[in-house]
Amino acid sequence: MTITTFRNTKLSRLVMALASGLMVGFSLPPWGWWPLSICGLIVFFQLAKSVNGSLELFLIGFVFAFAWLALGMGWMWFLSAPGYIIATLLFASLHGVAEVVASRFNTPIFSRPVAHTLAEALRFSFPFGGVPLATLPIAISPTRLADIVAIGGPILASWFVLQTAALVVGYFNKRQSRQPVAIVLLVLIALQIFGQISSPVQTTDKTLRIALVQGGGPQGVLAINSRARDSFDRHLEVTKTLQLSDKPEIVIWPENVIDVVDFASSREYSEIATEAKRLNAEFVVGITEDAGIGHFTNAQVVVQPNGDITSRYDKVRRVPFGEYVPSGLRSLLTAVGAPTDRIPSDAVQGKEPAVLNLQKTDLAVAISWESFFAGRANSGVESGGTILINPTNGSSYTGTILQTQQLATNSLRARETGRWTLQVATTGFSAVITPTGVITQRVGVGEAKTIIVDVPLTTGRTLYSHLGDELFIILLVLGLIICWSVQRKGMAKING
Asked: Whose CA is closest to 93, among 82, 85, 81, 103?
């Protein structure tokens, strides 16, 4: 077979789809070669133009997304290899369907970005609440392009990247009219400029001195294989390096460092209260408590210098197959030999707004996994949070795929909410992020260290904070309807 012949085969097109998907995958953290996100999409969209037939369109969309997501969600392998395979196959199938749907319109320069953005929107929420990792907004998070999330969050940002790539393909298509390309290009530029200059969020002249505590320790450690006290001891030791002369007003510990039957009556509570009194600071600590047979809670609580427990937030977005087994599936999975013993009990879902009330301000809080869901961070800002915190426990994961994507995600959350964002982790990364998404301080994986930072309080809400995701999903659906309407009118003229 000659090279020319190979280029015209289905196999060659699948290889190109695989290559374009890998390009998008390597645009994500921890690799972070962000221009590859747009380049990979350009290659994929150009390839899709040469494909006919629903089956092959599905296959190239599937292979493209499988390569992208298999790289970007590699962290899942270390938790559950079968779960990783199933999730990657499922989410890749959504993009296979999106490519088939997009091909039904004679305006693929517009229908393809819309269809694939809708596939991403579905992935963000389905099944079991979705898995919004390895996303296009995460890829562009180190750049000013990501400022658009302040207008439309991750959904608008996903469309922005997809539409940019499609415009490049359309611009070099001799049969494509340049006028609609120019119009959409102007819209994209206007959105980008608006995202950078329009901010109803205001920084006040008030600051809080906050100490973030990272205890360090090994990765790849499951709760069932570790002693509950170990992580606590590491964080207590690091906390004791803080001095009264450091003048911390708030000390924040990561997610579920304290694992007890009942926090208020525990030894750990007494030790936290002692440190709060010593430093004359409010402590915000992550706890897990028993909540009846087969259940537990995952919460952040506030301990005052006098020992009072004054505020509490229980995690709402739990990790499926990590913190709980979805209803009705435990017995089935156990029957087929799945390691459900690694999740011996289920987390109880919280119901309160994502905010903690402190003496001088309110903190918006997204516990660990919740940071990947823009709505959870926004819930705390809606309730008056002037700073966003993300206490997290990454010790279960191996490598840095998830940890680097979490940092990138919190860079997006900071811009979406217009809040200083503090990520505090057990084993890394703990970090300070400005409202413009810039990571100013970071503690590495495994390090035992504190960050002391004076954090300005901010008020007001971004446009995205007011609008949410629903409007942009409706606009995407309307976009497909408009493409369909244009196509019908065109066919009517031809048949007229």
From this structure: 85
Instruction: State the pairing for strand pair 387-392/421-425.
Output: parallel
User: Which residues in the chain come in under a pLDDT of 50?
Assistant: 1-4, 6
Using H for helix, E for strand and C for coil, what is the string for 90-134? HHHHHHHHHHHHHCCCCCHHHHHHHHHHHHHHHHCCCCCCCCCCC
Structure tokens at 286: 């992550």
What span, in angstroms and rounded, lies between the C-alpha atoms of 323 and 346? Answer: 6
Contact 389, 365 (CB under 8 A): yes
| CA 30/CA 399 separation, integer angstroms | 10
Which amino acid does the sequence have at 306?
A: N
Q: Is 403 left (phi over 0), alpha (psi -120 to 50) or beta?
A: alpha
pLDDT at 79: 75
Q: Are 148 and 191 in contact (CB under 8 A)?
A: yes
Q: In this predicted structure, what is the pLDDT of residue 490?
A: 58
**Residue listed under structure tokens 């009517």:** 492
At 222, the amino acid letter reads L
Distance CA 459, CA 377 (A): 15
List, in sequence order, every residue forming a beta bridge with 251; answer none if it has no partner: 211, 283
DSSP state of 444: P
State both tokens at 275.
């440190």
Task: State residue 2's pLDDT score.
Answer: 46
pLDDT value, residue 3: 41
Q: Is 112 helix (H, G, I), strand (E, B) or coil?
A: helix
DSSP annotation of 205 reads E
Angle at 13 between CA 11 and CA 17, to 5 degrees: 115
Q: At what angle do helices 149-171 and 374-382 cross, to 10 degrees?
A: 150
